[in-house]
Amino acid sequence: MATRAQLSQERSRQRREELLSAAIELFAEGGSRAVTHRAVAKRAGLPPATTTYYFESIDDLLREALADHITSWRNELDLLSGMDQLPRMGGRITDATQVIATVWAARPPEVAALELSIFLAATRDAALRESAREALVGFEELASRWLGLLGIPDADRLAPALLAVIAGTALRRQTGQYSEDDEARLMSEAIRDLVGAHLLGREKVDEIIADTTGAETD
Amino acid sequence: MATRAQLSQERSRQRREELLSAAIELFAEGGSRAVTHRAVAKRAGLPPATTTYYFESIDDLLREALADHITSWRNELDLLSGMDQLPRMGGRITDATQVIATVWAARPPEVAALELSIFLAATRDAALRESAREALVGFEELASRWLGLLGIPDADRLAPALLAVIAGTALRRQTGQYSEDDEARLMSEAIRDLVGAHLLGREKVDEIIADTTGAETD
DNA sequence: ACCAAAGCAGTACGAATGTCCAACTAGCGT
DNA sequence: ACGCTAGTTGGACATTCGTACTGCTTTGGT
Fold first, then answer.
1. Residue A67 CB partners (closer than 8 Å, separation 6+)
2. Domains located in chain B, CATH noted
3. Is A49 near strand D, with its CB below 7 A from some atom of it?
4. For residue B177, which of A98, A58, A168, A137 has the smallest C-alpha distance?
5. Do B165 and A164 touch (CB under 8 A)?
6. Quick one: which of B123, B112, B21 has its CA closest to B64?
7. pLDDT one-digit tens code per residue, A81-128
8. pTM for this structure?
9. Do residue B187 and residue A194 have CB atoms under 8 angstroms apart?
10. Beta strands in B140-202 (DSSP E)
11. Which of B122, B119, B166, B131 is nearest to B147 (CA)?
12. Cβ count within 10 A of residue A8
């Protein structure tokens, strides 16, 4: 039997993950400067040499930790996607924005900051950028599916704007300029406006804009 | 006269700024890990000890460099604000989004990445967070003023959503998922939708949403 | 029970880092 | 002319870092 071997491998894998987890924690707390061999090992409660044993270099460690977090993040979202809990809301979009706002509020600012940081760190690393792109695609697909379930046509075209609003709000939230309630409300209203204009159609929207502003200045 | 002394002080101030500028460059290129005493001094073409002479610690140096960049960024925006070039567009909002998209395209992704990074770095630093908040307020005021010049009522309420879309698009752009043209188009369309819905008013938007989705599922 | 191999950890070492300090320079008042 | 103050700098120091090396322990096959 390879039971023992498997168990050993399993333990090894788990140690590796603990290191990655510790690295993410340190990164979230103090940025990339805080992620050092010794700090990671200490945080994970493992001997200092462990990090060099499991990873080629400290850069590899950080890279893998960030990529790992992106992946788990996507998995989390895929789980939500599989649940298809949205139809239970009765198909009312106003309620849907409420759902989004609730999910949003449940995600603490520190976590949001971490995820935004990872997306940005991906800027300077080709491999990470690929992961970030995959995650983005996943989010857009998820948003698109949810919007579709609500009976919104051309959901694909609306999804990117929706995500942009969510991401932008996440970023602004980091400044603490608005209260948590205000942030949720601002996002909810922005989404509602985007959905409304989308449903109305581009021609109608252009008409409204022309009527309002064109008339005043022409 | 204190001419000589003033000149000396001026030179000193300039050296300081060169260090800050070098620090920003290094931060943009390699993140906070790349910002070290020696690296900064070398980049600025100054002796190594200069950094310790002008700054309490390396953290202070980085902090001040980021805050400095935020400030100059705001000044740049204030300049745009003072120009009030928007009315020349004839007050057409569709053209205005074009202007925004153009300005946007002119700002290279690397610079956008830097500014996003600074905003995020502010998360972990109280002093920086204050600077970031001031910048945010400045941007919202600017957006609000421009919207007002276009004859849009309640511009204050629209500005945050507009900025969220811009910031969110900036973030997504970092992944390289869409082409630059597509990004500009996506942002332009999202802004147009936001403006249109805003002009239409909340009640009307809610009606549209209720008509479209409520009917299908009720 | 024994051995080969892989997992693992203690330790060491060169390089880089943050910080400090003593000396050197230049401008300024007297 | 001459010190005096502020600006400036080269170099040194302890610390921390990344990494490699050398054994030790555990495991799996026989």
1. A127, A128, A131
2. 1-66 (1.10.10.60), 81-218 (no CATH)
3. yes
4. A137
5. yes
6. B21
7. 776 666 566 667 777 777 787 778 788 999 999 999 999 998 899 989
8. 0.91
9. no
10. none
11. B166
12. 11
